[in-house]
Automatic annotation (TrEMBL):
Family the entry assigns: Belongs to the cytochrome ubiquinol oxidase subunit 2 family.
Principal location: membrane
Protein's name in the database: Cytochrome d ubiquinol oxidase subunit II
Molecular function in Gene Ontology: electron transfer activity; oxidoreductase activity, acting on diphenols and related substances as donors, oxygen as acceptor
Keyword Flavoprotein: no
Keywords assigned by UniProt, alphabetized: Cell membrane, Membrane, Transmembrane, Transmembrane helix
């Protein structure tokens, strides 16, 4: 039963990585779009794409937190008492990001718009970095079973830096592919080419960082590397195939096909992390079974989680469908 609960938990992690990651990545392109005049059109597309669904994807973060503290309370306590600095900074970034995105739409003065816009854009980069650093700290075994690990080296280390940088790059890649498809849907050839070039560039940089990361993991987290190159290798290969296919079909395939391929690339690589780390929950020293709550709690949690997913997934799907059809009024 503990493995079932862990799979449900990691399903939420994948959903947040894909959907929340696309949101964060859009903020990355907002940040790097250029000056007020040059970046006006890309930022407008970012606003149009995010406005119907902004912050909605954080439901998956809440889902993961509830699953973790209820199903694996010992692991939750260990993570929170060790990685409280990056988690706290990520939470602050989420708040600033949401506030910046909301207030920049209603600010009248240019200087106020710049401040709120900067808060949104910078937080969109900072949050995935800290979450990736947290994942690196967990995966490399720097969270002791009893918690109270080193508050600095637990997330300032080679694997955490790699995780943070890859998280930012993957978010940027996903968003660039999604926004390329959105620009095509809006029949804006210039903007489509703008985001397509950034999709290709981000894919190349992400691939280079991932390859360099193999040497980082060999020195800093060899057990994780062994898992990635053995039982998780099919998922790693699938991620690469989906990512490359999405890039090759950016010009020709239907936008929905390209978006699905980008989602598959991200989902596969995050799933590969989970498979590589299995059966451990905390890096190298605490298994899923050891960290799990009693069986009655896991049964109740699984039932509640299934009910929650039955409600949330159709609602989120409807939201995205309506947003894609342009049926949601986001002008107010």
């Amino acid at each position: 039963m503990s493995t079932v609960a862990a799979v449900v938990l990691f399903t939420g992690v994948i959903a947040y990585a894909v959907l929340g990651g696309a949101d964060y990545g859009a903020g990355f392109w907002d940040l790097t779009a250029g000056g007020a005049q040059r970046g006006r059109r890309p930022r407008h597309l970012v606003d149009e794409s995010l406005a119907p669904v902004w912050e909605a994807n954080h439901v998956w973060l809440v889902f993961c937190l509830v699953m973790l503290w209820t199903g694996f309370p010992a692991a939750f306590a260990a993570i929170m008492t060790t990685l409280y600095v990056p988690l706290g900074l990520a939470a602050l970034g989420i708040v600033l990001r949401g506030a910046g995105f909301a207030f920049r739409k209603v600010m009248v003065r240019t200087d106020q718009q710049r401040v709120t816009g900067a808060a949104f854009a910078l937080s969109s980069v900072v949050v995935p970095y800290f979450l990736g650093a947290v994942a690196g700290g967990i995966a490399s075994g720097r969270v002791p079973p009893g918690g109270q690990g080193d508050p600095l080296t637990s997330w300032v280390n080679p694997t955490s830096v790699l995780g943070g940088v890859l998280a930012v790059l993957v978010c940027a890649y996903t968003a660039a592919v999604f926004l390329t498809a959105e620009a095509r849907r809006h029949e804006d050839a210039d903007l489509e080419a703008w985001f397509r070039r950034r999709s290709l560039a981000t894919a190349v940089v992400t691939g280079a960082v991932a390859l360099a990361g193999l040497f980082v993991l060999r020195a800093d987290a060899p057990r994780l590397l062994d898992g990635l190159l053995s039982r998780a290798l099919p998922l790693v290969v699938l991620s690469g195939v989906c990512g490359l296919t999405a890039l090759l079909l950016l010009r020709r395939a239907a936008p929905r096909v390209v978006q699905i391929l980008a989602v598959g690339a991200v989902a596969a690589v995050v799933g590969g992390w989970g498979v590589a780390q299995y059966p451990d929950l905390l890096g190298t020293h605490t298994t899923i079974a050891e960290a799990a709550a009693p069986a009655p709690t896991l049964w109740a949690l699984t039932i509640v989680a299934a009910a929650a997913l039955a409600i949330v997934v159709p609602a989120m799907a409807l939201l995205f469908v309506l947003a894609q059809r342009g049926s949601l009024d986001t002008s107010h």
